[in-house]
Design brief:
Blueprint (H helix, E strand, L loop, with lengths): L1 H14 L5 H11 L6 E2 L1 H10 L6 H11 L7 E2 H8 L5 H14 L6 E2 L1 H4 L9 H4 L5 H10 L11 E2 H12 L5 H12 L2
Antiparallel strand pairs: 1-2, 3-4
Helix pairs in contact: 1-4, 2-5, 3-4, 6-10, 6-11
Protein name: EF-hand domain-containing protein
Organism: Onychostoma macrolepis
Keywords: Calcium, Metal-binding, Repeat
Length: 188
C-alpha cells in the first residue's frame, strides 16, 4: 500500500534527523536534483532509493500521485511536507480547534471576511495605514495565510486551518510551547 511506503519514508527521514520542517526541507532539497523547488517522478524515485525505501515502480508512482495533491505532475515542498510531517498530538489539535471556533464568529464552519470584521483590527496594518490597501484587502491578505494553496477561494475551513497549523506544529518540539503559543496568539 502506498500509505505504508509513505510512512516508511517518514521513518527513514526521521532516522536521518529530518524531524521538523528544517530537516524535511533539507531532505527535499537533496532530492530536488535540478533545483526547481519541485520533485518530478524521477527525482522522487531516486530520493526513495537514496533513503532506503525499496518499492516497486508502480508503488512509487502511487506514492507520488498521493503526494501530488494538485495533480501538476510534480511535488512541491508544501505537498511533500504535508505527507511526511509527523502527526499532531491530540492536545495540539484541541487548541487549534478552539482557535478556529474563536476565528469562526458566525459558527458556520467557514471563516470569511465577515467573521473578521470587528475581530481583526486592520487599522494597524502598515498597508492600510499608508492608504495602499483597503480594510477588505487587509482581511483578504490575512485569510490567504490559512487558505489552501490548491483552492484559493477567500474562505478558510477547519481543514485548511488545521493544515496550516500542522505545518507550524512540525517546527515546534514541545506540546507545552505550541499550546502556549496558540493561546497567546488567539487570546484563548
Amino acid at each position: 500500500m502506498a500509505a505504508d511506503a509513505v510512512q516508511e519514508l517518514r521513518q527513514q527521514c526521521l532516522k536521518r534527523g529530518a524531524a521538523g520542517i528544517k530537516g524535511l526541507g533539507r531532505t527535499f532539497r537533496i532530492m530536488d536534483d535540478d533545483g526547481s523547488k519541485s520533485l518530478n517522478f524521477q527525482e522522487f524515485e531516486k530520493g526513495l532509493e537514496n533513503y532506503g525505501v525499496s518499492v516497486e515502480k508502480d508503488k512509487a508512482q502511487q506514492m507520488f500521485a498521493m503526494m501530488d495533491k494538485d495533480g501538476s505532475g510534480t511535488i512541491n515542498f508544501d505537498e511533500f511536507l504535508e505527507k511526511l510531517r509527523p502527526p499532531m498530538s491530540s492536545a495540539r489539535r484541541q487548541v487549534i480547534d478552539q482557535a478556529f471556533l474563536k476565528f469562526d464568529k458566525t459558527g458556520d464552519g467557514v471563516v470569511t471576511i465577515e467573521d473578521l470584521q470587528g475581530v481583526y483590527n486592520s487599522k494597524h496594518h502598515p498597508k492600510y495605514k499608508s492608504g495602499e490597501w483597503t480594510e477588505e484587502q487587509v482581511f483578504r491578505s490575512f485569510l490567504e495565510n490559512f487558505d489552501s494553496p490548491y483552492d484559493k477561494d477567500g474562505k478558510v475551513t477547519l481543514e485548511e486551518f488545521v493544515n496550516y497549523y500542522s505545518g507550524v506544529s512540525a517546527s515546534v518540539d514541545s506540546d507545552e510551547y505550541f499550546i502556549t503559543m496558540m493561546k497567546n496568539a488567539w487570546k484563548l
